[in-house]
Write a structure and sequence with these properties.
Structural class: alpha+beta
CATH architecture: 4-Layer Sandwich
Oligomer: single chain
Order of helices and strands: EHEHEEEHEEHEHHEHEEEEE
Number of helices: 7
């Protein structure tokens, strides 16, 4: 099973500039989206009901802002339970989290807040991080695997930045953000992509639109797939910088059956 996670930075724009082609050529079993930037009522039918897929959404309350979604192929098991948000109104109004339960794992697509210039939303980001960690830990007690995907807006190490000197101190590198994610990784969660590429630099998932940063691979790795330690062995993760349509590239998790 292939699970694609992608911050599309506006699903309508991305649909015609890369997303539709990816779906038609590769037909992944599950696609997860962040930063949909649209209300469901404003999306065309080709996006809300693409052939061969069932779709699930948690859009933000403000048009043109945030929002997450999922496409699940009709050829695979459909989720038995869907949870929109974290049950916290001030967070859920922004449409940042969608959980799908399958027979042996929970799959979460999350769009973490940007802590903002000067850390103006850092307190909100810290609270979001605290709550989603508690939420994921509670899911683990249900006896299934937990896979947390999405745009974390966090570069967890200097390896995840093209220019450490230029970018340290920017949103996504503030100490509370980095400490939170690394504490998660030290306590039973696995950054699957980094697990298999320990010490390797030059892997990024987001590039600024300016100064041809993508062409020169001057980016950040802020889009992640985390899994609990017991489930992570079933996953392999790759980045797809060859797929265009957004300032982020897709992150693809390949999931093996449990043997």
């Amino acid at each position: 099973m292939r699970i694609v996670s992608w911050n599309v930075n506006g699903i309508r724009a991305c649909w015609g500039s890369g997303l539709r082609d990816l779906m038609e050529k590769e037909r992944p079993e599950i696609m997860l989206f962040q930063e949909v930037k649209s209300q469901l009522s404003n999306l065309p039918e080709e996006i809300t009901s693409p052939p061969g897929y069932r779709t699930y959404w948690h859009c933000g309350g403000r048009p043109g802002y945030s929002g997450v979604g999922a496409f699940v192929s009709e050829q695979v098991e459909q989720p038995t339970w869907i949870v929109k948000g974290l049950m916290v109104p001030e967070i859920d109004v922004e449409g940042r989290v969608l959980t799908l339960e399958f027979s042996d794992f929970f799959l979460i697509t999350a769009y973490f807040p940007n802590s903002g210039g000067g850390g103006r939303r850092l307190a909100f980001k810290e609270e979001f991080c605290r709550l989603i960690r508690m939420y994921c830990e509670n899911l683990r007690t249900r006896g299934k695997g937990v896979v947390l995907t999405g745009d974390f807006n966090i570069a967890p190490s200097e390896l995840d930045l093209y220019s450490v000197r230029a970018n340290l101190g920017e949103p996504g590198t503030f100490p509370p953000e980095v400490i939170w994610m690394n504490s998660l990784l030290s306590e039973g969660w696995v950054d699957v992509f980094r697990r298999d590429r320990e010490g390797e630099a030059g892997h990024y998932s987001w590039w600024s639109f300016f100064d041809e940063d993508r062409a020169h691979n001057r980016g950040w790795r802020i889009d992640h797939v985390l899994a609990d330690q017991e489930f992570a062995h079933r996953l392999e993760v790759e980045l797809r910088p060859d797929v265009f349509g957004s300032d982020h590239c897709p992150v693809v998790a390949k999931m093996r059956p449990d043997l």
